[in-house]
Structure formats: C-alpha cells, structure tokens
Amino acid sequence: MGFFMRRLSFYFVALLFAATLNFILPRAMPGDPVTMMFANAMAHVSPERIAAMQKLLGFVDAPLYQQYFTYLANIFTGNWGISIKFYPLSVNELLGGAVGWSLFLTGTAVILSFCIGSVLGIFAAWRRGSYYDAFISPSMLVVQAVPSVVVAMLVLYTFAIGLEWFPSGNAYTSGTLPDWGSWAFYKDVAYHAALPLACATVSQIGGFLISMRNNMINLLNEDFITMARAKGLSENRVIFNYAARNSMLPSVTALSMALGTAISGQLIVEMIFNYPGLGTVLLNAIHARDYQVLQGQLLLMTMFMLFFNFMADLLIVVLDPRLRKGEK
Questions:
Q1: Where are the transmembrane segments (predicted)?
Q2: Residue 115 to residue 110: CA distance in whole angstroms
Q3: Could you please report the per-residue DSSP string of 284-307?
C-alpha cells in the first residue's frame, strides 16, 4: 500500500503541474480568445458584450491567483468551460461526443497491434536467425517507417474508391441516427471503422514486435530458461510461461504509454477518413484558436496518460513477484 500511495501522490502532483501549465499558457499570450474572436467586428460589438463573454469564458479581470483557484475548482467539479468555435456548446459536451470514437478506434488499434506485434516478436526471438526472423522483423519496420498519411491514402484509394468494398468516411452511415440498442448499428460502425482501424493497427505493429523480440533475446540465455529446458518442459511452455512472461514487463510499459496517448486520437487517419474523434476536434480547435477546447483536451490527455501509467505500475507488480517482495 505504501508503494501505491507514493505512486498516487506522484500522479496527483503531475496532474496539478499539468493543470497549472494549462492555466498559464493561454494567459501568457497577448490578448485573449474573446478579443480575437471579435477582432473583425470590433466596431459593432459593445465593450459590455465583450466583457460579458470574457467572464463567461473565464477570462475575467481579477488577480491571477483568484483566477487560478477558480480554474482548479472548475476542473475538479467538471466545469471545463464553453467552446468558442461551437458556442454555446460546452467543452464537456464537445469532448464527450468525440472521446468514445477515439477510444474505440485508437484504443482497439493499440491493443490489436500489441497482441499481434508481441506474438510475432516472441517467435522472431525464439527463431532468431531463421528465414522467418529475417523476413518479419525488417518488413514490419519498413511498414512502420511509411508515413501514416501515405498508408491511409493508399488504403482509402484502393479499398474505398477503387474496389468500393468499404465506405470512404464517417463513423456510420450518413443520415442515420445512432441506435446503441441495435445490432445492425454496431455492424455498421464496425464496417465504417474497418479501414481506419487497419491503418492505425498496421502502423504500430513494428514497434511492439521489435520491443518484444529484443527483450526476449536478452532473456533466452538466462539460467532459468536453461533450467526449464533441462527439466524437459515443452517448447511452448518454455516460450510462453518462462521467456515471454518475463519479457512482457517493458512491453507493458510501452502499452500503457500507447493507450495513454490513444485519447488524442489518430489525427491523420481521422482526417483522411473523416472520423469524428478527438484528433479532428483538436485540429478544429487549433485552427479556431479555441483555447477552452485545447485546454480541456490537453488536460484529458494528461489524465488518461497518468491513469494508464498507474495501471501499468499495478500490472507490473502483479507480473513480477520480485517487486512485491522488495516493497515488504
């Protein structure tokens, strides 16, 4: 419990630091979003209306420390402000409508690429120097090196425009209303997500493959592997129960980092396939200088990153008994 409490304290301080940085950056810039929003119509907007909009969006004329504590109170009470571009839509509503799609697309892609890459890396390490290892490892590195925009454009042109096997965009059929109680709607969502999911998955397999392969090669000459072989254990048991399990620890950390960044969405993939995830929201907020949305999304990304890192800490303790003994 002492270990867990120390980690929780660390993550709370990290979240507080990120929130403080998130508060300072927009206020360190000249002007404010409201003034920029009405820049072209300054002659037609009264100062009273500008002041009212500034107060609504949190840019009030008050001491900085008061603004800071008000900002922190709003964060922990779930009041993240109102979008400038999509006024009067709140930041919570805007991000809440996109976070599910990003988690589905990018989170599924990360988990699939981790599973596929780890299995391929296990066999590449076990058969290092073979034709399989000589083919699969460089091939996945080449695929990973190709820019995601090129992969997405090729996949879109080939399977959506050329062969017309899949739709070219959106999360579900245009003109239909989401019906989460209908199995047909889930099939439609999966059908529309097939191409962007494939692009997002393929681009990440190489990293997990090489990581698992290198970790496992470093363990294959350890004494406990030699002992397992000397006992006459089956090859599969030595691979998965002894070598692969101990090689998973660094990969679990890499997986947690990938899942933490998954909340930001696959910006390129979402743009090309017109997928309504957080990557698209972030791009629109940058173009519109929608500071409220940018602050909310960066804070959300930080919270997810810290959460999955904490989950990785817990999982590593479960997987490695030495850590449990060391903390007693």
A1: 98-126, 138-160, 189-210, 252-273, 298-319
A2: 9
A3: HHHHHT-HHHHHHHHHHHHHHHHH
